[in-house]
Amino acid sequence: SYFSSNYFATTCAWAGFYMPTKRRRGADLIDGGPQCHDAVAVFEGKAQAEVRVHSVVLRIASPVFDAMFSSEMKEHATKRFKVDITSRDKFVEFYRFLLPVSGRDSKVSADNVDYILEISEYYQVQALKDESAAV
Question: What global pTM score does this model have?
Answer without folding.
Answer: 0.74
